[in-house]
Amino acid sequence: MTSTQDGRTAEQESDTRQATGLDDPQETGQALPVQSRVEEMDTPDTDTPDLPEARDALDLGEADLAADIAGLQTQFDVVRYLRRMTEDHGFRHFMICLIPPIEVAKLSDTSIVSNLPKEMLANFDDSHLLQHSAGFRRLRTTTTPFFLTREEWSRETTRPAEAAQHVEVSGRHQVDQVAYFPVHNADGTRAAMILMGQQRDISMTEMMELQMVAIYIYNRLTEIGAFWRESEVTLSEREIQCLNWTAAGKTSAEIAGILGLSEHTVNHYLNHVTKKLNAVNRTQAVVKALRRGLIS
Q1: How far is CA 289 from CA 33, 106, 150, 208, 260, in A?
Q2: What pLDDT, on a 0 to 100 scale, did the predictor assign at position 61?
Q3: What is the pLDDT of residues 230-284, one digit of tens each?
Q4: In degrees to the nearest 10, what's the CA dihedral of 71, 75, 76, 81?
Q5: Contact 153/134 with Cβ under 8 angstroms?
Q6: 36-46 residue pLDDT tens
């Protein structure tokens, strides 16, 4: 009889998966094998393998991970995969977002995929924490993964009152610790996978496993976006102007003043071009337009 990490038997684990819908025939094709591979390498049947054998095991695990993620076809597939991976590693919430320039004010404008509770995201944006957050300030200066406990994040965030309020909101959603995994793609665009949950020890091995997940998932999201570039997109002069000023870090109100338009009209142009480019928000629309050469 085998047991899971929390001591349950395989039969109990199976019953739990069925009760929560994780064994839905439509879902099991995307199941994440990363955790089981970690367990296999950490508890071998024989003595500790020598270095070449251990390296072979790691290479095989990474190859399997790459193949699993390569099979994801849509953003919905990615979200479903991330939801399972997050749960398998003991976290509650995930987000993949662009690392924004300092001028960008809202985290919601940089999000690509996420299951972050609306209350948390709204409080973070309403408190104007993006420019002051300890996590995002560190993401702008490092390419290695790291995590912050609630106390560390509060201490290092430069708006103490707003940080304390956000910690209270996050606590209602069982977030006591946040892990950050910075990534980038070939054109230099920088992003991050962020995982949130209750405080616990996170080993270096697990951090490296999750860093690999972040790299492959972000690359896959970029590739899925590349499929959209095959379709012909034509932008109006006003849409190009609005995107160019957005890329320069201007808000809708500022763009309206520059172009002599109402803020409502600017938002209309930006929403329209975001749909044209099949982007999830205006920040991603700017990135896609730059890659297509539609703006400079």
Answers
A1: 36, 20, 37, 33, 23
A2: 67
A3: 456 788 999 999 999 999 999 999 999 999 999 999 999 999 998 888 788 888 8
A4: 50
A5: yes
A6: 333 333 333 43
Task: Tell me how long the chain is.
Answer: 296
Question: Residue 242 has what pLDDT?
Answer: 94
Residue with the two structure tokens 């995307």: 30
Give the span between the Cα atoms of 205 and 219, in whole angstroms: 22
Contact 195, 86 (CB under 8 A): yes
| Partners of residue 240 on adjacent β-strands | none
Considering the entire predicted model, what is its pTM? Answer: 0.61
Q: Are 274 and 285 in contact (CB under 8 A)?
A: yes
Contact status, residue 132 vs residue 162, Cβ threshold 8 Å: yes
Tokens of 90: 């003991």
- The continuous run of DSSP H or E covering 157 comes out as none
Q: What percent of the chain has pLDDT over 90?
A: 51
Report the half-sphere exposure of 217 (CA within 13 A, side-chain side). 32
- Could you tell me the CA-to-CA distances from 188 to 156, 176, 183, 185, 268 in Å, in that order? 27, 31, 10, 6, 29
Within 8 A by CB and 6+ apart from 63, the residues are none
Whole-angstrom CA distances from 205 to 16, 19, 51 are: 27, 31, 16
Give the SS3 label for residue 4.
coil
More confident residue, 32 or 75: 75
- As a whole number of angstroms, the distance between CA 47 and CA 54 comes to 12
- Runs of H (alpha helix) within the chain: 10-20, 34-42, 51-70, 75-88, 118-126, 134-139, 150-156, 160-172, 204-228, 237-247, 252-259, 263-276, 282-292
Rounded to an integer, what distance in angstroms lies between the CA atom of residue 117 and that of residue 132?
Answer: 20
| 246/62 Cα distance (integer angstroms) | 38
